[in-house]
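Hi, here's the filled form for the chain we discussed.

Project: internal
Contact: R.S.
Residues: 480
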Amino acid sequence: MRWPIRYQILVPFAAVTGGCVVGLTILSSWQVGRMVRHRVEQQLRDVASTVRRSNFPLTLAVLEQMKGLSGAEFVVTLEDGTWQTSTLGDSARPPLPKSEGIVDWRDIDIANGFPTWNDRFLHIPLRLQGRNDTKPGDLLHILYPVQQYHSAWWRAVAVPLIFGLTSLAIAMGFGWLVARKIGRAVGQLRSKVARIAGGELILDDAAMVPRTGGGPTDELTDLSADIGTMAGKLADFEQQSRRRERMHTLAQIAAGIAHEIRNSTTGCRMAVDLHAQECRTPAAGESLAVARRQLSLIEAQLQRFLQLGGPDAGTDMQPCDVGQIISDTVDLIRPAARHAGVRLHWSSPVSGISILADWESVARLLINLLLNAVEAAAEAATTSARPAEVDVSLSVFDRRARIQVRDSGNGPPISMQDCLFEPFSTSKKDGVGLGLSLAKQIVERHGGIITWDRADDRTQFLVEIPLLSEGQHRGEHPDH
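And the returned structure, exactly as it came back:
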């Protein structure tokens, strides 16, 4: 049987609180009613005591004064029951209950019960013995109005009764609100956990975001924040798992095609070497030298292709001049930029900037960035009047070598901006979507970061790699 948590909180709270409030209300009402009864009894005892101890005649005027002080009616009867004096006026005089009367006025006790007369009065007969104006059998009948007694009792009891019921209502309302709030919060958490269990790991609910302000928090808020953090970590883990799966798939694909590509590259290199022997002009020699270097890079990439997504066992970390790597890479890309009509600008810094890196890996990183920039600038120039330009700069910022590649292209489409560095993410018709993914992997392997942004109608890629430390200058491993 399912029992909602709000009822698990509300029912025990209502039972305990209601029992306490009702018990205190009943106790207070009983105590107040008892005080009212004692007050009435004390009034009647005072009257009876005054009558027994005094010798003034019980005339109608005296009885009227006693009525005004006590609120009771008085009737004096003779031994045979005949009415002698009465504050009831000249109305019909039905016979009073026969009684020998109370001898001691201290015996007046409403709690022990007295018979009612005419269903309107409590009948308390008092014997008038020892007085000079009465005979031993005469009685003073004290008739206290029942309605007056009940009214006084209810007026006294009403205050604690109303207070108790109001307190009970407030307590029940407060308990219901607290139970409702907790139940709703638990229900929301249950819904969010169910969404996470269903695979929805990106939750944008405000309640899932940890509070950073100075507002009050509680355990449910902390739990909600923890669930939000868990969902974020699960989302990151899922992305990492997908990336590893993609890398693994890519490695399997590479294993199947690497052999065929290597054979074709070897044949192409042999053809270029033969052509270089036949054509010995300076212009042809420069172009063939570039072609040979490109083929060498292709062969190096094929050697590392199978290690995509895993540790690069072949990485040779050595002190390198970043400016020299950029200069060599720009020389490789410049013919392609010239052919595409793109102005490629690069000014080498005066002083050398050294990093601990694998020369070929950083060159491969720059080739990817520069080729993408050249293609983007050339494509944008076909649809606009602005010139096709690619600017490469090198600077030092916060103990890091900062490489900046800017192009005049249109930038990546909006749909690609969040997954620009993911494998197989591309907007090109003939693209594979591996260039920026490889670039990011190389930068991270060197302890750096790669970012991009769009400003002043230009796309900028920024690569930051830590500078070479003094210990690394002496040949020490960076981990030592």
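Let me know if anything looks off before we file it.
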